[in-house]
Amino acid sequence: MNRFKNFFHGIYGIDGLSCGLLFLSLLINLLTTLIPVEGIQMLNPVSLLPLLLCLLRFFSHNHRKRQRENERFMRIMRPLFEYFDQKSEEREQAQIFRFFKCPACSQKIRVPRGKGKIEITCPKCGNKFIKKT
């Protein structure tokens, strides 16, 4: 029992790359299950490879190597994460503000919702136009 307890002491655990591998494995498995084409059905054993890698990373005791692998993965995935963060922020702001483009210079202007018809002055070119918020 003590040997079993020591085995789990110091394991690396789950990080971003492990979650990505797990998601990839589930995605491949789901696609091979849902698409009834014989050629795709042969990919089902391939879905076990990312799962196996995920488990090997989870139980690894080499923390430094796993951290470097995770940092490389996160560096590659950062643009995707930033894209989704930006989209969620835009959705939150769309509930509070209306966005208009200036007809003269195409500057994007943010105006509070629910103010009725208002005159908007472009901060870039000074053009004035009337819109309903």
Keywords:
single chain, 133 residues, elongated, alpha+beta
Question: What does this entry show, briefly?
Answer:
The protein is of the alpha+beta class. Helices cover 56% and strands 15% of the residues. The chain has two domains: 2-95, no CATH class; 97-132.
- Helix coverage percent: 55-70%
- The radius of gyration is 25 Å
Unreliable stretches (pLDDT < 50, length at least 5) are none
User: What's the order of the H and E elements?
Assistant: HHHHHEEEE
CA distance, first residue to last residue: 68 Å
Strand content: 15-25%
* Count of strand segments: 4
Tell me the overall shape: elongated
Strand order of the largest sheet: 1-2
Average residue pLDDT: 87
Count of separate structural domains = 2
Which class best fits the helix and strand makeup?
alpha+beta
SS field, number of helical segments: 5
How many strands, what sense, and barrel or not for the largest sheet? 2 strands, antiparallel
